[in-house]
């Protein structure tokens, strides 16, 4: 992959914002929690994929990493790191699969 391909393939960004729910309205955190609970308890269209609210997938991934004792990377991420290590002449050590 050349530089132009890499730039078009990566086009992404991140923004992190911390908001205090208490600043919105009296009782907002309680109403927000009720909304999240109601959303999670909706009847799913696909029973194998229950409704989620923001943070649920991330929490599930964090729990999986905790259970496995480390961070799980996708194959494409590892391939990219291996190519980078090869280009830089660095030895990349991989841990055996635990899954």
From TrEMBL:
Keywords assigned by UniProt?
Oxidoreductase
At the highest ranks, the source species' classification is: Eukaryota, Metazoa, Ecdysozoa, Nematoda, Chromadorea
Q: What is this protein called?
A: Uncharacterized protein
Q: Name one GO molecular function term.
A: oxidoreductase activity
UniProt keyword Protease present? no
| Source organism of the structure | Caenorhabditis brenneri (Nematode worm)
């Amino acid at each position: 992959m050349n530089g132009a391909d890499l730039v078009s393939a990566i086009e992404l960004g991140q923004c992190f914002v911390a908001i205090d729910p208490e600043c919105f309205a009296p009782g907002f955190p309680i109403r927000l929690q009720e909304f999240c609970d109601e959303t999670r308890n909706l009847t799913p269209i696909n029973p194998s994929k229950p409704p989620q609210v923001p943070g649920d997938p991330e929490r599930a991934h964090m729990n999986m990493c905790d259970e496995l004792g480390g961070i799980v990377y996708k194959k494409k991420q590892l391939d990219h790191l291996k190519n980078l290590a090869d280009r830089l002449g660095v030895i990349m050590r991989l841990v055996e699969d635990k899954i």
